[in-house]
Amino acid sequence: MRFYLTTHKRHWLRLTDVPLFLKSEHFDRAVKWDVAQGPYAVDSGGFTELQRKGAWMRPPRQYADSLRRIWEHVGPYDWAAPQDWMCEDAIIHGGTFNGQHFVGTHLSVREHQRRTVQNFLELRSLAPDLRIAPVLQGDCVPAYEDCLEMYERAGVDLRKEPIVGLGSVCRLQSTREGAAIVTAVAAHGLKLHGFGFKILGLERVGHLLASADSAAWSSHARRRPPLAGHTHKNCANCIDYALKWRRRVISAIPTHRQTLLTDRSAA
Predict the structure, then answer these.
(1) Which of 53, 103, 135, 181 is deepest in the core (most CB within 10 A)?
(2) How far apart are CA 60 and CA 42, in angstroms?
(3) Cβ contacts of residue 219 below 8 Å, gap of 6+?
(4) CATH number of the domain enclosing 125
(5) Would you say residue 148 lies in a domain?
(6) Where is the DeoxyPurine in DNA protein A domain positioned along the sequence (predicted)?
(7) Domain enclosing residue 168, as ranges
(8) Which pTM value belongs to this model?
(9) With contact defined as beta carbons under 8 Å apart, do 34 and 11 qualify?
């Protein structure tokens, strides 16, 4: 299993060979490009986009062009997420959650799934060479099964895909419901990526994932004093803290699963 460290600092690509996970928008204003020293993957930033706008503002062609620039300037990435549509209640219904305001798409789960599959097909058509990964969306086990069938009806065999994103499980990952979703979807023989998986989720279902990512290190650091010798207020933007946190996460996974969390930097 490959564990990506999620960051908004794109220059970290030249500072470490640890797998990194970055949003495509962080490259939009790039003047100086940093060549990746290790593996990385690209997130579309869908949660933020749908939270603030209630819809995707970037046309698929524009997003594909952005992914191509990243590929050409930074180096080939492992995979890139499509412009998928999350199915959390906050995204669909809107409202204020944990102090954050969500506009809400006010569409059905089924429509979010349909748009997710359609966007993947369009991006694959526009840029078949760019390793764009399909993503499954849903809000319960039957819904994820329905989404899988949508891909099958569209002629996409997810079992043959190098990676398949599992969306809308970030807030459920450490729960019984989240574990049931991951277990049911993994039973189809898919190589799954868990978006936003923290230690509790990895302890439960990490053995069923091909990869995962997390940005939890930043909020973790914001609530604590900086590392010894560091002069900033906290280490919420600090690569030293992030790498140290990542090592703690990996070492905390039960021993019989620890071999699943290797990458070339730990080899």
Answers:
(1) 135
(2) 15
(3) 236
(4) 3.20.20.105
(5) yes
(6) 2-265
(7) 2-261
(8) 0.91
(9) yes
